[in-house]
UniProtKB/TrEMBL annotation, chains A, B:
Cited PANTHER family: BIFUNCTIONAL UDP-N-ACETYLGLUCOSAMINE 2-EPIMERASE_N-ACETYLMANNOSAMINE KINASE, ROK (REPRESSOR, ORF, KINASE) FAMILY
Pfam family, one: ROK
Similarity remark: Belongs to the ROK (NagC/XylR) family.
InterPro entries attached to this UniProt entry: ATPase_NBD, ROK, WH-like_DNA-bd_sf, WH_DNA-bd_sf
Species per Swiss-Prot/TrEMBL record: Phytohabitans flavus
Protein name in UniProt: Transcriptional regulator
Length: 392, 392
DNA sequence: GGCAAATAATTCAACCGTTGAACAAATCAG
DNA sequence: CTGATTTGTTCAACGGTTGAATTATTTGCC
């Protein structure tokens, strides 16, 4: 709202980003002329901008594609696969993960270490994350990728400065991640909620997904990432998305948060496993596939509770889609019908503007991939920062 | 996200708006030098921009304020009170209203006609609105105000093109307002949901209110206007804010929408009056003031239901404030405690980032004033459009 | 094979808006 | 009255985009 002034340089900044995004989002590698036509900039301007982007290592020319008809062949422009890359990190209850995504969005490296993180002290966990990060970085550099930054996904509430205010299922409280991760010599690290980064991952996964959706992350807790008009919404103070503590029945069972009837008590991982008398998600899935009536009933009940909460969100925010992530992704075949039914029943505008309910396409990797992607997205959206970092 | 290109002219466009907003939001009439300092533009640039804005009738100079210390006295700049004005219109169940707001945000004219609008045909109602609008416009012109545009508030779902898709309490369905209001010879008219415009009214009412809040409009139905980061959020397709049909108890009483346990069944006007056995809001308020236990219990119950729904919203969106509007404004003394209690109980982050729950400052006028304000805000945010309309 | 048509990319003078410094205007303190 | 101080304007310079002309490279046709 109260935005800054615009000087001449901001012009260039904006248009560099525009050209880069145009090259990124096109179906086929566009020519300079294509970009000029799409952006309504001049060919002269686009040429100048592209020169800068190529010099900065963000764009590369690919051999001319065979053309139909006469005319000089166009040089296709693609995001440089050897340009700056993003490092994604994730701390979760029972694993640590890292991955590297290049500027074009391709996952170039992935690493997961399964182990219960709850007993360890936060410093110990962060040290292991730093180790994982160093490994991933070395691997990337062996492929000729320069890692531009890192993002860490954590299942909890994170402040704007990267302090984990509260991560109940990890047993963390007020952990200052940036100082704990100082080992990554100078690499800028951002920290964010796991559901937020997973939502970003989903947003950028498909070629053209919905611009407004709710990503629901089912884990031991239930989080949500809210994407509105193609941008992640973090809330006024960074604490949006606490879907797990939306009330489903105001006088339902007591929740660990102190309230009653929270969604978590009906559709959280532990509630589902208890209701289905299952030992784990794999077991649950197997028995659901086999048609175990108790398991099917438990999943239907969880889906209905989830549907009630999600329908409220849709009524309120009018999102186009709901993405089922975390443990909900593999359970989607059994949860989805109940969620869809509640949306049909409760969303006022459902008749003329339906809501797409679908499982996550990235599955369990959504948060790490989203984290790594968020780093390269920042460069894509404001290439100037990167270019001036290269050539000051 | 996929925004357009930035040409040289966009620079000017942006900076004109920046200067104008700076003059509007300042505590005292700022000088050109003040604006330059606040925006980090040059004094030269600000002078050039201010010249354009004065020539276009959007800014005016006020006599130099007495200054402390040496130096040439500064010419204060204020939004022109004789510049373009906005016409606000409202159709509600039991009244029609109009108001005129000048560029500085002052309400210069107001008119309300109480009458039940439900029996009349939409065309008939729109004809009366047109009459009211013509009156208001004539009145404004007698004061030397040129009306730049109009905005109409309607208690229902409105498409982007101004068609009222559904207004249940008015009995309207697919009413094309712009063609029905064509009588306002050429005046551009936008149509929007009543709660949305009321939220805008609240946003601009105070000098510096919260940038993210939920405006709850209690009427026969319950609507909500969502303001995020200082901008109204309309949803992906324009149908956000259906708070009245958020489920409070999934298997509660049947609602007119076809679902069960919607908030409207607990905290809608009719539900409250029925529970309190009251004839109207005035009666209810009088008996609440007198301490009637039945009325107090009914209001506490309604407040609790509202609080459950609102707490869910806060958990999800992390808004800084909740504004109680419509009939909730006069009933706030009795509703607020229950709402606050539910927020304390259910909002996870409440302990370290509290939510302000307060009654609307504009009261019943919020929607009309917000509608009129939205017209002048559009000019404030993009003065270029207005300037080129004056001098093409 | 050669030439015209067509399309891509670059070059360059012109234009537009902002900048920075110099300058004129208006006031106060002594 | 004079010097200090702050406001506002003027003007050459600069950065960035534009549009037209030019060069480059291919296809299609005779």
């Amino acid at each position: 709202m109260t935005d800054g002034p615009v000087r001449q340089a901001s012009l260039r900044e904006h248009n560099l980003g525009l050209v880069l995004r145009q090259a990124a989002n096109a179906m086929r590698p566009p020519s300079r002329a294509d970009i000029a036509a799409a952006t309504s900039l001049t060919r002269a301007t686009v040429s100048a901008l592209v020169d800068d982007l190529i010099a900065g290592g963000l764009l590369t020319e690919v051999g001319p594609a065979p053309r139909a008809g006469a005319g000089r062949p166009a040089a296709g422009l693609v995001l440089s696969a050897s340009g700056p890359a993003g490092l994604g990190l994730e701390i979760n209850v029972d694993y640590l993960a890292a991955c590297v995504v290049d500027l074009a969005g391709a996952v170039r490296h992935r690493d997961v270490r399964h182990a219960d993180q709850r007993p360890g002290h936060p410093d110990q966990v962060l040290a292991e994350v730093a180790e994982l990060a160093a490994d991933a970085r070395a691997h990337a550099e062996r492929e000729g990728l320069a890692v531009a930054g890192a993002a860490l996904a954590v299942p909890g509430l994170v402040t704007a400065h990267g302090v984990v205010r509260l991560a109940p299922n990890l047993g963390w409280r007020d952990v200052d991640v940036p100082t704990g991760l100082a080992a990554l010599d100078g690499l800028p690290v951002t920290v964010d909620n796991e559901a937020n980064l997973a939502a970003l991952g989903e947003l950028h996964a498909g070629p053209a997904g919905p611009a407004s959706f709710l990503y629901v992350s089912g884990e031991i807790g239930i989080g949500a990432g809210i994407v509105l008009h193609g941008a992640l919404f973090r809330g006024a103070r960074g604490w949006s998305g606490e879907l797990g503590h939306v009330a489903v029945r105001p006088d339902g069972p007591a929740c660990s948060c102190g309230a009653r009837g929270c969604l978590e008590q009906y559709a959280g991982q532990e509630a589902i496993l208890r209701a289905a008398a299952a030992g784990g998600i794999d077991d649950l899935r197997a028995r659901a596939t086999a048609g175990d009536p108790g398991v099917l009933a438990a999943l239907a009940a969880a889906g209905a509770a989830l549907g009630v909460a999600v329908a409220g969100v849709v009524n309120l925010l009018d999102v186009e889609a709901v993405v089922l992530g975390g443990i909900y992704a593999p359970l989607a075949p059994w949860l989805r019908p109940a969620v869809v039914a509640e949306i049909h029943r409760r969303v006022l505008t459902d008749a003329w503007s339906p809501v797409d309910v679908r499982p996550s396409v990235l599955g369990a990797d959504a948060a790490v991939v989203g984290a790594a992607g968020s780093v390269v997205r920042a460069i894509r959206d404001n290439p100037t920062k990167w270019l001036t970092r290269i050539i000051p």
